Amino acid sequence: MRNILIIGAGRSASSLIKYLLEKSTQENLHITIGDLSLELAQRKTNNHPNAKPIALDINNVEQRQSEIQKADIVISMLPAHMHIDVAKDCVKFKKNMVTASYISDAMQALDEEVKANSLVFMNEIGLDPGIDHMSAMKVIDEIRSKGGKMILFESFCGGLVAPESDTNLWNYKFTWAPRNVVLAGQGGAAKFIQEGKYKYIPYHKLFRRTEFLEIEGYGKFEGYANRDSLKYRSVYGLDDILTLYRGTIRRVGYSKAWNMFVQLGMTDDTYPMENSETMSYRDFINSFLPYSPTDSTEIKTRLQLGIEQDDIMWDKLLELDLFNPTKIVGLKNATPAQILEHILSQSWSLQPEDKDMIVMYHKFGYEINGEKKQIDSKMVCIGDDQTYTAMAKTVGLPVAMATIQILNGKIKTPGVQLPINKEVYLPIIKELEEFGVIFKETEMPYVGYNPDRLLGN
Question: Which residues does the UniProt record annotate as the domain Saccharopine dehydrogenase NADP binding (predicted)?
Answer without folding.
Answer: 4-120
